Amino acid sequence: MPLSLLTLVRNRTAYLASLLDSLAHAPDPPAEVVVAVCGGEDPTPHLPETPFPVRLLDIGSDGDRIPYSHARNACARAATSDHILFLDADCLPAPGTLSALDDTLRAVDALAIAEVRYLPPGEHDLRDVDALYAESRPHPARPVPPESLWRLSDAHELAWGLCMAFRRETFTRLGGFDEGYGGYAGEDTDLAVAAREAGVPLAVVGGATVFHRHHDVFEPPVQQVEATLANAQRFRDKWGRWPMEGWLQGYVDLGLVEWSPEAERATLVRQPTEEEIEAARFTLARPFRDAQTA
């Protein structure tokens, strides 16, 4: 059985519909797609017909926070395949990506990742794979995948929740995503580090590429300062070091947070102003951030 593809959505119905349409026309479709709907509009009326089942889980959300860990764990519990792929709804897999990840997991018990390429703003022919390759750029801080098969690594911090695959039993053995992470960022790095501690290698998979569609970003994510700070603190308490140092330093520079790399705790000083939030918004293509913030 092919792998189960797991994703989550809130008010990004057009992205989800595009992802499902792409998968429906792929030479290697998934066995199923499980979608955690985290509040917002009901995507059901807008979804295309697919040759595989699409199951929606009503997760809901707490205010403006998407419960990433809880939603992804719920998808994993609902999955029926032996292999699971977490893929964000704003990503499109190139043909052959799902089968390459699936074949890797059959051969090696690993946390498997694909190459991520970033598309600029504007309209794209999402079925023209050659054009997507030509228009997109790889992340300069990401590992270069081999031409085929996979390469094992212990650089688990390079795994991102937007595209990561596991054997389902291994994901369960690792405890899934830590639901103590209540909001934005950190839960994926936490799981990746837990995998390394458990002896599960990182597999950088050749022939596996996903295209990340452009959307506005915040650098640093000041609109999520409280949730990001709480998650960074949880990571520090568990692993003895800070994640997302680039973002934390950005908060310090704005006077929002008291923190240093040597500190045991980070303290929220104040909430950002509306002007600071808008100043941090980038509507032009800025797909890459400092590797320390990953």
From TrEMBL:
InterPro entries: Nucleotide-diphossugar_trans. Gene3D superfamilies: Spore Coat Polysaccharide Biosynthesis Protein SpsA, Chain A. This is Glycosyltransferase 2-like prokaryotic type domain-containing protein. Pfam families: Glyco_tranf_2_3. It comes from the Bacteria. Keywords: Glycosyltransferase, Transferase. Belongs to the glycosyltransferase 2 family. It comes from Rubricoccus marinus. GO terms for molecular function: glycosyltransferase activity. SUPFAM superfamilies: Nucleotide-diphospho-sugar transferases. The keyword Transferase applies.
